[in-house]
Amino acid sequence: MHTAYQRSRRRVHGQPRWRIVRYADDFVVLVHGTKTHVEALHEDVAGVLAPLGLRLSAGKTRVVHMSDGFDFLGFHIRWKRKRGTNKWHVYTFIADRPIRSLKRKVRALTHRTSQQNPGNVLIRLNQIMRGWANYFKHAAGKRTLSRLAHFVWWRVIRWLRALHRWKWKDVRRRFTTPTGRWKPIEADGIELFNLASVPVTRYRYRGNTIPNPWTCPTTA
């Protein structure tokens, strides 16, 4: 099943087809067939790994339908209907676990009893959020990024209020323009990074044209 032609021939004859997606020691096998075919392939994979001294992790290995989705490398991949249409597509979302991890880090840096320098806190928050956003910016996560930006903004504002003993009018005086529009949170010349400003750029499907070290050279 290395080429599209080989997979199409199996499809014509009603045979199941599969493809493997691997990153380091994590991999997913995508199967077009029945659950029986998947379970048989599960045993084949275990048989291939056994001579290498490896085995499938019981806690991480699952057989799921694409409509239920699965988590892989921090992403949640799922087959669902496109809103407003009857067409179904495979979407890549941000999984729940990395979202909870990011929130936990933000909470730790903005604890109300923390007496850290605001500039240093904003620098660390920006580093964490920029790295996180650059990794997940290829997922269908614009709404998730906006919700997280709202969460971070309120965490920082509440921490600053507790740190400086500000009232709400002090917050508005410092972070709004004369016309009443909100300005970015800033401390010691450091501006809080806005997760909602990260552009989402979906991966373009290139099929077999993706270069890799094992691509066979074209012979004349």
Structure description:
Helix 3 (96-109) runs antiparallel to helix 4 (118-136) and helix 3 packs parallel to helix 5 (142-164). The protein is 40% helix and 16% strand. The protein has helices at 4-12, 35-49, 96-109, 118-136, 142-164, 168-175; strands at 17-23, 26-32, 70-72, 75-81, 88-94, 186-187, 190-191. The strands form 3 sheets. It has a 3-stranded antiparallel β-sheet. Strands 1-2 form a two-stranded antiparallel sheet. It contains 6 helices and 7 strands. The chain is of the alpha+beta class and 220 residues long. It is elongated, with a radius of gyration of 24 Å. A hairpin with a 6-residue loop joins strand 4 and strand 5.
| SS-based class | alpha+beta
On the 0-100 scale, what is the average pLDDT? 88
Largest sheet: 3 strands, antiparallel
Helical content band: 40-55%
Keyword list:
220 residues, alpha+beta, 3-stranded antiparallel beta sheet, 6 helices
Helix-strand blueprint:
Blueprint: H1 4-12, E1 17-23, E2 26-32, H2 35-49, E3 70-72, E4 75-81, E5 88-94, H3 96-109, H4 118-136, H5 142-164, H6 168-175, E6 186-187, E7 190-191
Antiparallel strand pairs: 1-2, 3-4, 4-5, 6-7
Summarize the structure.
This protein has helices spanning 4-12, 35-49, 96-109, 118-136, 142-164, 168-175, and strands at 17-23, 26-32, 70-72, 75-81, 88-94, 186-187, 190-191.
